Amino acid sequence: MRLDIISIFPEYFAPLDVSLIGKARERGTLDVRVHQLRDWAHDVHKTVDDTPYGGGPGMVMKPEVWGEAIDAVIGDGTPRMIVPTPSGRPFTQELAQELAEEPWLLFACGRYEGIDSRVVAEYATRLRVDEVGIGDYVLAGGEVAVLVMVEAIGRLLPGVLGNAQSAVDDSFAPGSMRNLVEGPVYTKPPVWRGHEVPAVLLSGHHGKIARWRRDEALRRTVANRPELAAALDVDALDKHDRKL
Ligand code: SAM
């Protein structure tokens, strides 16, 4: 998968050199190219922003510099374009899965009050463009949001996770974990500071362990994410689930 990221702070993306994503880049599963937006600003100060029409505080990123940058990065290509913004559609595991199936993604990192809206309007005429928010809070810029998305997408690519089953059992994973968060996990020793690992996990009984994990996922979802629990698909619940 090819990922192009345009930003005024390319140094934000240093973490993409380490861990799972770093290894995926070394192996060639991920081809990440980070571009400095200011390379397409022509004045002596390399200006990328201007005052907002209609007044108000803050600055807005200029469409001309974004247009030149995107044109140069994509050439005649047609990546799917992602514009991080708190006003976008929510970034979910389902969207991460969908984006992991794309061959080429282009991320446009906003700063200040965001990017002049004509940039999305322009590229939506020739690319698939999604404005995406990673949560109901406001960051200073799109870089951290892109790091979040790249990590969530990258770990779903074939061969990136040591064990592909991990992604299937994760919170929010499509299938049996849809709308569920994962329950608690434990490792050795069996007793730590008086806290015992639940006996069922030491039983070796795979059926009982699977049942316990499902029950704990449901319990934790009800406790921490009641809105997800309320949206659970009743047909996807079995007789045992309904007793919880
Ligand atoms: N004035 C904008 C608003 O209220 O919607 C917020 C602008 S924010 C200070 C600057 C940039 O940070 C945005 O253009 C976007 O790229 C990024 N950003 C901030 N919060 C985000 C979020 N929750 N999800 C995705 N991107 C975000």
Largest sheet: 5 strands, parallel
Mean pLDDT: 96
Global shape: elongated
Number of structural domains? 2
Small-molecule components bound: S-adenosylmethionine
Main sheet: strand order? 2-1-6-5-7
Share of β-strand residues:
15-25%
Note the run of SSEs as H and E: EHEEEHEHEHEHHEEHHH
> Based on the structure given, which CATH architecture of the largest domain is correct?
3-Layer(aba) Sandwich
Subunit structure: Homodimer.
Protein name: tRNA (guanine-N(1)-)-methyltransferase
Function: Specifically methylates guanosine-37 in various tRNAs.
Pfam families: tRNA_m1G_MT
Lay out the secondary structure.
Layout: E1 2-7, H1 19-27, E2 31-36, E3 49-50, E4 60-61, H2 63-74, E5 80-90, H3 93-100, E6 104-108, H4 118-123, E7 129-133, H5 142-154, H6 165-169, E8 191-192, E9 195-196, H7 206-224, H8 226-230, H9 239-243
Parallel strand pairs: 1-2, 1-6, 5-6, 5-7
Antiparallel strand pairs: 3-4, 8-9
Bound molecules: S-adenosylmethionine.
Catalytic activity: guanosine(37) in tRNA + S-adenosyl-L-methionine = N(1)-methylguanosine(37) in tRNA + S-adenosyl-L-homocysteine + H(+)
Enzyme class: transferase
Protein name: tRNA (guanine-N(1)-)-methyltransferase
Mind explaining what this structure looks like?
Helix 3 crosses helix 5. Helix content is 34%, strand content 17%. The chain has 244 residues and is an alpha/beta fold. A hairpin with a 2-residue loop joins strand 8 and strand 9. The protein starts with a strand and ends with a helix. A 5-stranded parallel beta sheet has the order 2-1-6-5-7. The chain has a two-stranded antiparallel ribbon with strand order 3-4. Strands 8-9 form a two-stranded antiparallel ribbon. The protein folds into 2 domains: 153 residues, Alpha/beta knot (3-Layer(aba) Sandwich); 79 residues, Trp Operon Repressor, Chain A (Orthogonal Bundle). The chain is elongated, with a radius of gyration of 22 Å. The mean pLDDT is 96. The chain contains 9 helices and 9 strands. The site of S-adenosylmethionine has 19 residues, from strand 5 and helix 5. Specifically methylates guanosine-37 in various tRNAs. Homodimer.
